[in-house]
TrEMBL record:
Name used for this protein in its record: Circularly permuted ATP-grasp type 2 domain-containing protein
Domain Circularly permuted ATP-grasp type: 84-463
Domain of life: Bacteria
InterPro entries attached to this UniProt entry: ATP-dep_Glu-Cys_Ligase-2 (IPR051680), CP_ATPgrasp_2 (IPR025841), UCP005522 (IPR016450)
Record-linked SUPFAM superfamilies: Glutathione synthetase ATP-binding domain-like
Length: 487
């Protein structure tokens, strides 16, 4: 397995952990000085106790994640690391500006490709890449969602490779998950290490539910017409969904009803919720259900999860769906590769946040390069997620490389490739002590009728396996609390 030298966010060097514990002190970046003092003053047995306490908290809460296709681990805890990840306020301010710019461009792109298609006529990207994309929903052509917002909740995955080097790895504009872990991680840390919060001025994330509810209410079609208080619900596929815990958690935090498709019905193009006091009109549906299952009269006729007639009510402008139907086209990793051009086209600005260099395997020249350098690259399915179906070339045996090469030759349009980045590492509590582990960051960006908002921080995902670059929970990754602190 090839070793990757990574920037460490506490020490600046990937090998400083052994030196720091072996006598020779290592320089600590300014944001982590209080963390280093805390670690120095916490004996191994105390850290072990805190780790057990954290696990006990999560078990009591019932925060689990279902792993599809793993009969031996249908429900499991996502590993939680008690050492927080630190971002300086100045670093966060730059990220926030870049995230807002990017999400505004994403919303403008979605409005355009389902409307006038100016970006296609301008030749910025191939027409077939959008119009023949599996995520492009023909039912939304010519439609405008209430409030003009397409992706109300976006999860933008960021990676870091150096002191001032942040890149967007993926855009999640359809049904991004993980915000419940961001909130629960903070609650657990407040219980476990209150002394650290006394020493460090940590920006709060607890306002996220209030911000999300305000965002949803701002795009209610009925409020704009009558001033009525909007009725919002969260639509879940049910308790067998891998993210059901998050659905129930968020509905509770928002103070709205958690519903399944059978709890809703449509009459005269208006959506109603069944209640013990009779039908109640619904204005906004925060849906955690994929497009194909949302309305059996329009999409998958076998779906028992959706609401018959929902798309008719949506088309009539009587209900808001967050996120809008059809946003999956912006999740596509081939579309992602055009995001710098998309930002320039719709904002007239240079992108604040860069993309990871990407080869589109659908292009013959790029495919040739990827095949020649497969052992050096990361290859992903354009519509993949959760870490499934990807190849990490430097870690793959020869037989796997050969099998992936055959896939690429057969269906090059289904893949993109990227360099194997040296993702930054953070101090992480392990059975053997504090060690470096690779991380990424998913901030959650909220877009309402009038503004774009972000709570400071996000969900830090951590690869718990030494040397691993895969942080996804479905692949054994864990999470950390993310602290934005004053410089």
């Amino acid at each position: 397995m090839a070793q990757i030298t990574a920037f460490d966010e506490m020490y600046g060097l990937g090998d400083a952990y052994g030196r720091a514990s072996g006598g020779e002190p290592a320089a600590v970046t300014s944001g982590y000085r209080a963390i280093q003092n805390w670690l120095d003053q916490s004996p191994p047995e105390l850290m072990a106790t805190r780790r057990r306490q954290a696990e006990l908290f999560f078990r009591r809460i019932g925060i689990t994640f279902a792993v599809y296709g793993d009969p031996d681990a249908a429900e499991r805890l996502i590993p939680f690391d008690i050492v927080p990840r630190i971002l300086a306020r100045s670093e966060w301010d730059g990220l926030e500006a870049g995230l807002k710019q990017r999400v505004r461009a994403l919303n403008a792109f979605l409005a355009d490709v389902y409307g006038p298609r100016d970006i296609l006529r301008a030749g910025i990207m191939p027409e077939e890449l959008v119009l023949q994309n599996p995520g492009y929903n023909l039912h939304m052509v010519g439609k405008k969602p209430p409030g003009g917002v397409w992706t109300h909740i976006a999860g933008i995955d960021l990676v870091r490779t150096g002191p001032d080097q942040f890149y967007v790895l993926e855009d999640n504009a359809r049904t991004p998950s993980g915000v419940s872990y961001m909130l629960e991680n903070r609650e657990v840390m407040l219980k476990l290490v209150p002394e650290l919060f006394d020493q460090m001025k940590v920006a709060p994330v607890e306002t996220y539910p209030e911000m999300l509810l305000e965002t949803l209410a701002s795009v209610s079609p009925r409020r704009s017409r009558s001033g009525s208080a909007p009725v919002c619900v969260l639509l879940t596929p049910g308790r067998h969904n891998s993210a059901f815990y998050e659905h129930s958690f968020l509905a509770d935090k928002l103070g709205i009803e958690l519903v399944e498709g059978s709890d809703l019905f449509v009459r005269d193009d208006i959506v109603y919720m069944r209640t013990t006091e009779g039908p109640e009109r619904v204005d906004v549906i925060y849906r955690r259900l994929d497009d194909d299952f949302i309305d059996p009269l329009v999409f998958n006729p076998a779906s028992m999860l959706g609401v018959p007639g929902l798309m008719s009510a949506y088309g009539a402008g009587n209900v808001t769906l967050a996120n809008a139907v059809g946003t999956g086209v912006a999740d596509d990793k081939a579309i992602y590769s055009y995001m710098p051009d998309i930002v320039r086209f719709y904002t007239g600005e240079e992108p604040i946040l860069g993309n990871v260099p990407t080869w589109r395997c659908r292009e013959p020249e790029a495919l040739g390069y990827v095949l020649d350098h497969l052992a050096e690259l990361v290859v992903k399915e354009v519509d993949g997620s959760g870490g499934y179906g990807m190849l990490i070339g430097p870690h793959a045996p020869q037989a796997t490389l050969a099998a992936f090469a055959a896939k690429l030759k057969a269906h090059p349009e289904k893949f993109i490739a990227q360099p194997t980045l040296a993702l930054s590492t953070c101090p992480t509590a392990t059975d053997a002590g504090i060690a470096a582990r690779h991380v990424d960051l998913r901030p959650f960006v909220l877009t309402g009728a009038n503004d774009v908002k972000i709570v400071p921080g996000g969900l830090t995902r951590v690869a718990m396996t030494p040397g691993s670059l895969v942080v996804n929970s479905s692949q054994g990754g864990g999470t950390k609390d993310t602290w934005v602190v004053d410089d």
